[in-house]
Design goal:
With about 300 residues, the chain is of the alpha+beta class. It has 10 helices and 12 strands.
Amino acid sequence: MASARSFHLFGRAADASNVPMLLVDVLAPDHPIVHCNNAFCAFTGYSAGEVLGRNCHFLQGEDLQQPGCRQVAEAIDEGRQTRIVMRNYKRDGTMFYNELSVAPMTDETGRITHYFGVLRDISEQIAIEEQLRELASTDPLTGLLNRRRFEGLVNQEILRSHRYSRPMVALMLDLDLFKRINDAHGHACGDAVLVNFAATIARGLRVHDVCARIGGEEFAAMLPETPIAAGLEVAERLRRSVEAMRTPWVGHEIAVTTSIGITQLTDWDQGYGMLIERADAALYASKQRGRNRVTVA
């Protein structure tokens, strides 16, 4: 067994640290925790009496299927150290992202008897990274997906639709005569109209549909597992909703209409470009025919 002096030194060092630490006995059944420092108790809200003798899995609650649980078990089985990120839960149920570093301790013969773990709360870092990812994939004005993210999702859905022989519809939508709004009332008014327009589209789509702002006053939508007849119903409903839309602005309301182009995925469509080009051609035809209408390509 590891010497009593080694345990004593580890305990003193751990208790003097403001970093949460714990020690696990890997020779005992169920790998119980045999030491946790004061920083661990202060951070998690558990007392030492509530921790000692338990397997570390209690920190994951019911969230035991996350990859980190398997990665830690594999590291212990293979006798190596590792560092992973996993979701843990404090005593009050608060979830935090834990960057967990674990490493083996050996006895005088070199046999691994214990593992010590060092916890680091990286929840704020994860939150910032998620915010940056969201900013990179959404339009800052309307909150809809941006063109880049939308293109990626459309390409994924095209592959699924071909693989499982499922129908799919794409829409292109344009605010009619939007330049006149900017010229008459200014860009702040134009932005308010765009935000209202985006919200109207989002409300008019189904839960599994996806919409995006492609650029300027041009928007797009993807309707997975949708035949053209059902897609036309959605498009016409969106057109009527926009026609009824009113954006309050300095004592009056701004009314707008939308032109819509719609197309269905075909066997020869291999990517975003081919599908959206056809929907865009249908949108252009709607505008040429007098606007405020839906045209199929």
